[in-house]
Amino acid sequence: MQRALDLALALTQTRDEATLRDWLLETIQRVWQPQGVLLGMLDVSGRQLTCYGRVLDAPVSLQLAVDDFSHPLAYVLHKNQVRTWDSLYGGARIEHHDFRQMLCRVGTACGLHALPLSAENGKPLAVLALLDSSERLFALHHSGEGVRLGHVFCCQLMLLRQLAITQREQTALRDSLRQIKDEDVHRRDREKQVEATLIGQSAATKALHTQIYQAAHHRLSVLILGETGVGKDVVARLLHQCSERADKPYVAINCAAIPENLVESELFGYEKGAFSGAQSNKVGLVAQANGGTLFLDEVGDMSPLMQAKLLRVLETHRFRPLGAGKESHSDFRLIAATHQPLEQRVAEGTFRQDLYHRLCQCLMQIAPLRERPDDISLLSEHFIGRISLQQQKRVGPLHRALLRQLVGYDFPGNVRELRNLLEIACAHTPEGETVTLAALPQEVRDRMAGSAEETKTHFQEIHDLRVATQQYEAAVIKARMSQFHGNRLLVAESLNIPKCQKLEVN
């Protein structure tokens, strides 16, 4: 009874297949003390036996092929029968070199008792082999203890494997849930970052937020269109910061600012001695963007030479530095921006059509500030807060009269002009006071008043409000259709109207 309890206690302490294997070998060695014991475990493929054990107290480790009948364990496995040989040289086929070397230690009088170990469904798991005199082996065989011990081993082995499968599934589930949680946190952080950077509550701004979230998930080239000052560079940087490349380089190139004679050296770099004055190697902007984002600002003002140089790089991501003997590769995500009407430039022949199509795999149009007056109040509040911190001066809020003037102004310079006006107004506003219209220079006030007067004059010419409303709606829709290149879904989203509503354009 005590021996059985000791065996059971040791069995319950096995936590993996290696410790279970050691338990079986140690139990056999302690209880039966054979001259040798060998346990061959089938691998996952079922084609290989990995054998462990001891022969005359010397450790043994073998790799045996299941279909190699030069050793007797293959016979036992394929027949799925217990087999006892009273002599290792009297019937057992032993031609396997390593197996023979192992048996040389015990001598020719030693016998071999081998039994297959299988799961309850009959699937073979291992082979157990004992080396000893024929009398002891036959006695062990007839007692049935070896078969029962093997059955205990197989049951525990299947239990450990099932537990391992369950643990892997639980780990995979935890990892999946953690990934979902991390993605959700990342998504919320990204949305907060976009909303805090790209200020606005208008339908056009919200639609732009959605476009940024979507474009951040793919690697298509993005072309950002919009008037000067609308914040194209802000959108480009947000796309980079919200993408999987956020921790990689963000390289911005002002295409209009690079002199034509320096295009190749600036973009692709050069090696020492490539030309007179090249005293050392220089890494080009394309190489610097490797792994990150390459932003081509003012791409519509690109010279014909630069267009030609860039086209192949954008298609192949390969380039050759000046003086280099071989090409290099740069893995960058391309974002471009322009205030120019590129389709018109293509039609005029001043911008390459193949380059245009390469740039606009994903198109983003930023609406001018005059088309999203709902954003002016939030933008003003944001800029005043930043200006106060920069100037270490507490001013604000914005006076209602000034806000009305700003909402009625057409802002040809867009958001950049609004920020500039507020910087001037804050600079001329005393500490702790409200920012008023009087803080702006007279020239600015006159310009804003002139814009409001034009609007007032236009209103005075209206004689039928219903017709005027219809004409205005048609004009707005026509402008948006042009802005979004006929995409009615984007037009509807930008105007906050139902997608199913018919868009009338005269």
Description:
With 506 residues, the chain is α/β, with parallel strands linked by helices. It has three domains: 2-163, GAF domain (Beta-Lactamase); 198-367, Rossmann fold; 370-461, Orthogonal Bundle (Helicase, Ruva Protein, domain 3), CATH 1.10.8. It has 19 helices and 15 strands. It has helices at 2-12, 17-31, 72-79, 97-103, 134-143, 145-197, 203-215, 232-241, 263-268, 285-288, 304-316, 342-348, 353-359, 376-391, 400-408, 414-427, 442-460, 465-483, 488-494; strands at residues 36-42, 48-55, 58-65, 83-85, 111-118, 124-132, 222-225, 250-254, 269-270, 282-283, 293-297, 318-319, 328-329, 333-338, 362-365. It has a six-stranded antiparallel sheet, with helices on both faces. It has a five-stranded parallel sheet with strand order 8-11-14-7-15. A hairpin with a 5-residue loop joins strand 1 (36-42) and strand 2 (48-55). Helix 2 (17-31) packs antiparallel against helix 6 (145-197) and helix 14 crosses helix 16. The longest helix is centred in the middle third of the chain and has 53 residues, at 145-197. This is Sigma-54 dependent transcriptional regulator. Residues 198-427 form the Sigma-54 factor interaction domain.
Main features:
single chain, 506 residues, alpha/beta, Beta-Lactamase, Rossmann fold, Helicase, Ruva Protein, domain 3, 3 domains, six-stranded antiparallel beta sheet, five-stranded parallel beta sheet, 19 helices, 15 strands
Q: Kindly give the count of domains.
A: 3
Quaternary structure annotation: single chain
Provide the β-strand percentage band. Answer: 5-15%
**What is the CATH superfamily classification of the largest domain?**
P-loop containing nucleotide triphosphate hydrolases
Based on CA atoms alone, the radius of gyration comes out at 40 Å
Share of helical residues: 40-55%
Average pLDDT taken over every residue: 86
CATH top-level class of the largest domain: Alpha Beta
Going by CATH, the architecture of the largest domain would be: 3-Layer(aba) Sandwich
- Number of H/I helices: 19
